[in-house]
Amino acid sequence: MPYEIYKTAHIIFLLTFIASTGISFFVETQNKQVRMIGMTSSFLMLVAGFGLLARLGIKDWPLWVTIKLIIWLILAIASPILARKLRDNRIWAFRLLMLLFFTAVVLAIYKPT
Ligand code: HEM
What is the pTM assigned to this prediction? Predict the structure, then answer.
């Protein structure tokens, strides 16, 4: 598949992942569907990320890719757990997660290392 398709998928699933994170944190009535959408979109975003790496011919991961992977792992694991378990400080956990999303975006654009 071409680079553009992977990139479009990466960004569309990123938007879906962020939206479902917001819903799972702040919408009172939760259902299984939101959790499923969050999990599926985060996974497909990862798949598209690997597709992008292949299309760009990146074999030895630079540091920005490794950091993005770690950020992805934290977000994919921590978001659903925090959304379910946290009672106080939800807004602070959410802000922290958003900061991780923003960091990953900056890394993708500036590729500092
Ligand atoms: C929450 C985590 C992530 C966020 C917020 C994110 C965000 C983004 C964004 C916004 C872009 C487009 C950048 C541009 O057009 O210049 C991008 C590109 C990219 N992402 Fe991610 N990403 C994440 C995770 C990952 C992961 C886990 C991988 C690797 C498996 C990855 C690999 C890539 C690659 C290779 C590109 C293409 C860079 C380019 O075209 O120059 N991303 N990412």
Answer: 0.93
What's the CA gap between 18 and 79, in Å, rounded?
10
Query: Where do the structural domains in the chain lie, given as residue ranges?
Result: 3-110
Ligand 1 neighbourhood includes 68 CB (under 6 angstroms): yes
**Please, are residues 20 and 85 in contact by the beta-carbon 8 Å criterion?**
no
Are 45 and 17 spatial neighbours (Cβ–Cβ below 8 Å)?
A: yes
Q: What contacts 2, CB < 8 A, 6 or more positions away?
A: 55
Ligand 1, from 4, 8, 10, 59: best to mutate by most atoms within 8 Å of Cβ? 10
How many separate helices (H) and strands (E) can be counted in the chain?
4, 0
**Residue with the nearest Cα to atom 9 of ligand 1?**
105
Does ligand 1 lie within 6 Å of residue 107's CB atom? no
CB distance 108 to ligand 1 below 6 Å: yes
Q: Write the pLDDT tens digit of every residue in 4-56.
A: 999 999 999 999 999 999 999 998 777 788 889 999 999 999 999 999 999 99
